């Protein structure tokens, strides 16, 4: 491992942490950069390696948001547990079943999300509707299972799907949705890290410096999102969704 490659990876990890803390989508930056920079390593090894910086960034983002944004404490705990278990199961299934069919499905969903968010100007700007405590509990539990499994099985766009779910199903605004999404993302990333640690497919000499860079980016990204508020996060959300659509479409054409 030469220093130039490591510096390059840390730079991308910093940018990934910054973007991910605001609205999710950091994996779209960090994972391709790692695959392109270290082509001599097996893909599972590189995917496992990127999970540690992703976890560190998620934890930093979750910590920053939780200090300034009210969290639904009595429901987020069970959701984190369900997301953790579902993510572990998704990673296990990934080792046995190909996930190629996920990309076209995710692409269609993301295009619909982009169009809806772009045309509905007030989406996520204020709490959209009153959701009863029982509805919040059920919907957050289901989100934890579905999105947790998706993160372990496929991954890209998880943060954006979480934000979308918290806004559309639970009634949060963008800032509160981002705060809760980071908590759930930290749980799913932890499950993946433990899975890959158990498999022994992590390059720690790469993962640990990238983790510091990702954490630093997440600190700055979360602070900026909290400072700028919902409209700023909405713009970032649209940019990340657009980038994800382009990335998926490019991969499918290629």
Topology:
Elements (H helix, E strand, L loop, with lengths): L2 H21 L3 H11 L5 H24 L6 H22 L7 H18 L13 H21 L4 H11 L5 H26 L4 H25 L1 H24 L1
Rg estimate, integer Å:
17 Å
Structural class: mainly alpha
Task: Characterize the main sheet.
Answer: none
Residue share in β-strands: under 5%
Which stretches are low in confidence, meaning pLDDT under 50 for 5 or more residues running?
none
Termini gap: 29 Å
Q: Whole-number average pLDDT?
A: 88
Q: State the helix count.
A: 10
Keywords: Cell membrane, Membrane, Transmembrane, Transmembrane helix, Transport
Protein name: Probable membrane transporter protein
Family: Belongs to the 4-toluene sulfonate uptake permease (TSUP) (TC 2.A.102) family.
Subcellular location: Cell membrane
């Amino acid at each position: 491992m030469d220093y130039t490659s490591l510096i390059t990876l840390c730079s991308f990890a910093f940018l990934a942490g910054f973007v991910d803390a605001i609205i999710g989508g950091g994996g779209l930056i960090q994972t391709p950069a790692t695959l392109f920079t270290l082509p001599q390593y097996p893909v599972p090894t590189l995917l496992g390696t990127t999970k540690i910086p992703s976890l560190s960034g998620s934890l930093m983002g979750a910590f920053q948001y939780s200090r300034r944004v009210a969290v639904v404490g009595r429901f987020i705990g069970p959701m984190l547990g369900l997301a953790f278990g579902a993510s572990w199961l998704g990673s296990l299934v990934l080792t046995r079943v190909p996930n190629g069919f996920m990309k076209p499905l995710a692409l269609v969903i993301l295009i619909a999300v982009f169009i809806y968010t772009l045309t509905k100007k007030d989406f996520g700007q204020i709490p959209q509707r009153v959701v009863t405590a029982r509805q919040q509990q059920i919907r957050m539990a289901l989100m934890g299972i579905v999105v947790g499994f998706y993160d372990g099985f496929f991954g890209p766009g998880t943060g954006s799907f979480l934000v979308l779910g918290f806004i559309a199903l639970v009634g949060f605004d963008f800032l509160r949705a981002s705060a809760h999404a980071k908590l759930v993302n930290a749980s799913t990333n932890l499950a993946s890290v433990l899975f890959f640690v158990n498999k022994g497919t992590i390059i720690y000499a790469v993962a640990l410096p990238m983790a510091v860079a990702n954490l630093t980016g997440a600190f700055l990204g979360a602070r900026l999102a909290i400072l700028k508020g919902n409209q700023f996060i909405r713009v970032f959300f649209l940019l990340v969704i657009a980038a994800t659509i382009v990335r998926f479409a490019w991969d499918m054409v290629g």
